Amino acid sequence: MITVFFLIFSDLKDYQVDQVFLEKGESAKTADRTQLKAALAYVAAKGDIDVFLVHKLDRAARQSLDYHMIVATLMAAGCKLVSATEQFDNETPSGRFMGGILALQAQFDNEVRTERCKSGMIESVKRGCWMWTALDSKPVRRGTDMRPFIMIR
């Protein structure tokens, strides 16, 4: 579905699609991703790619430092980062500012979700729930009252 969106967007902007890189199951929480590395290496090696198109900035990076590293890598290759759903231009001061703000927003959102998940898991464990895969299928007992509960894989 997203590939069709990119193709339509590319047609509207008169972009000629050279290569498509799809990440399946890798989180944008880190820049250490197979397809991202391959795409950046492709841009650097090819040398004539004008636009690096992403659906949304937080799909490219959820850490401000990673975002700036990606932008610097692309700029060194004469390429610019374009978001299909967010309007900013890294070639202007206000566009770079906006891109930085969007990167910080993505990082903030990711860190807040991480905190909430962590605190929720801690509270669940305090209530006697086990949040991870069971070590074995035997009934497990908890607390001083030793009330049993069953873990299901």
Summarize the structure in words.
The protein has five helices and four strands. The protein is elongated and about 55 Å long. By secondary structure, it is mainly alpha-helical. It has a single domain, classed as Resolvase, N-terminal catalytic domain (Rossmann fold), CATH 3.40.50.1390. The strands form two sheets. It has a two-stranded parallel ribbon. The protein has a two-stranded antiparallel ribbon with strand order 3-4. Strand 3 and strand 4 form a beta hairpin. Helix content is 49%, strand content 9%.
Strand content: 5-15%
Mean pLDDT across every amino acid position:
81
- What are the low-pLDDT stretches, counting only 5+ consecutive residues below 50? 144-153
Task: Name the CATH homologous superfamily.
Answer: Resolvase, N-terminal catalytic domain
Q: Summarize the main sheet.
A: 2 strands, parallel
* CATH fold title: Rossmann fold
| Oligomer description | single chain
The percentage helix is 40-55%
Please state the structural category.
mainly alpha
CATH class: Alpha Beta
List keywords for this structure.
153 residues; mainly alpha; Rossmann fold; two-stranded parallel sheet; two-stranded antiparallel sheet; 9% strand; disordered C terminus
Helices and strands, with pairings:
Blueprint: H1 2-12, H2 34-46, E1 51-54, H3 57-60, H4 64-76, E2 80-83, H5 93-126, E3 140-142, E4 147-149
Parallel strand pairs: 1-2
Antiparallel strand pairs: 3-4
Task: Give a quick summary of the entry.
Helix content is 49%, strand content 9%. The protein is mainly alpha-helical and 153 residues long.
